[in-house]
Each structure stands twice: as structure tokens, then as C-alpha cells.
Amino acid sequence: MKIAVFVSGGGTNLQAIIDNTKDGILKDIEIVLVLSSSKDAYALERAANNGIPSAVVSRKDFASIEEWDDAVVKAVENSGAELVVLAGYLSLLGPKIVSKYSNRIINIHPALIPSFCGAGMYGIRPHKAALAKGVKVSGATVHFVNENYDEGPILLQKAVDVLPDDTPESLQKRIMQECEWKILPQAIRLIADGKVEIDNNICRIR
Ligand code: GRF
Q1: From 199's CA, which of 55, 73, 142, 153 has a CA 20 to 30 Å away?
Q2: 39 φ/ψ angles, rounded to the nearest 5 degrees
């Protein structure tokens, strides 16, 4: 299966996918496009280091959402990707890409949805909010993407304990290492194997 990975920043989730295509559970998966919302994303270097085609498609470079949305659709179509993986991608997708790739776009969110998600809940913020609430577990969620932030059907979740001396940074690091870098490749595997069904907004894994 061919996939496109959308990024905005450091790209450690992209790296986890790349590593699994080389020596892990995604050996039959080809990353045909890394699309970044920012020209400064370190994820672009990770793509270049691994010979993966990349493109920068920034909302601010287009006069309207429609034109930007069209450019995103075109980039994915030209790549031949069958699945779009949002891996630390910070823009809300436009309506055309979401409807054209309905049930073929997944996102990783660094909290247990429906907690600590939605507009503005990115980067360190979900972890700050989790500690401020005093939750005893947090984690990560892979979900399908619809036109709203963090709202589509939930595919996989993994939790870690919140420790008494956690800082937002230590919690973020543990969730990345123990949850995100594992369940995002696992989600791609399940979809590639045709094991995921969506029924009435609920994901079932066969
Ligand atoms: C991750 O925590 C991801 O869950 C969130 O943004 C962060 C991106 O990290 N959506 P990276 O760019 O994959 O290192």
C-alpha cells in the first residue's frame, strides 16, 4: 500500500513509520509523499535522508482555502497514495481532501480522545491540560479524520500512567515513545490488511 504522510514539525512519528517500513511491521508499505505545512519542518530532512519525495503546501501561500485545498488534493493524487497519515500535522484539512479521501485519512493525537483534544490542543498543551486536571492515565489516539479537529472514528488508543513527578515534557516524551510511535504504525498495518471497518462512526477491527 502507498501512503502519504502529512507533517508540520520534528517528524518523530514520520521517523517511526519510516523505521517500520525498513525493519518492522510496514515492510510492504511505501511512503510516496511527505507533505509539510511548513518549509522549516525538520520532518522534511528526514524525508530527504530516506529518499522520500516531499512537498511543502502552506495555507499562507494560497489566496483562498479552496486553492490550498485543491493543491493538497493534487499532491496526494499525483503521488498515488491510498492512505493519508497525519503525523503531527497542524493545519485543519480543507473540505475537498476530507471528502475525497473519506475514511482514508488518519491522525495521531497525543491524548485519550475525547479528553484534551479539539482546536488549540496540540504540542505540549494536551499534556499541560492532563496534568492540570490530575488525570491518572493519559496516552495517544489514532482516529479517522473528518472536517472537525480530533472528531472522527477512533481506531486505536494506548495509555500510560501519569506519574506523580511528571512534567508536561516528561509526559509528552513518554506518550510519544510508548504510545504514538507504536500505535500509528499499527494503525497503518491494520488498514493495509483490510481489517478495519467503520460502521455508524464506530471503528471495528476484524
Ligand atoms: C505528536 O505529539 C503528535 O501526536 C502531535 O504532534 C506531535 C508531533 O510530533 N499531533 P512529531 O512531529 O511526529 O515529532
Answers
A1: 73
A2: -70, -15
Options 46, 59, 109, 174, the catalytic residue = 109
CA atoms 50, 52, 55, 59: torsion sign: negative
Rg value, the chain, Cα: 16
Cell of 30: 511505501
Tens of pLDDT, residues 145-190: 987 878 899 999 999 999 999 999 999 999 999 999 999 999 999 9
pTM of the predicted model as reported, rounded to 2 decimal places: 0.97
Known catalytic residue at 143:
no
pLDDT per residue over 88-113, tens digit each? Answer: 999 999 999 999 999 999 999 999 99
With CA atoms as reference, report the closest residue to 3 among 24, 19, 26.
Answer: 26
Locus of grid cell 475525497:
100
Q: Position of cell 473540505?
A: 95
Rounded to whole angstroms, how far apart are CA atoms 36 and 50? 16
Question: Ligand 1 — pocket residues by CB below 6 A?
Answer: 7, 9-13, 43, 87-88, 108-110, 122, 176, 180
63, burial (CB in 10 Å: exposed 0-12, middle 13-18, buried 19+): exposed
Distance 89 CA to ligand 1 centre (A): 7
DSSP summary character for residue 60: G
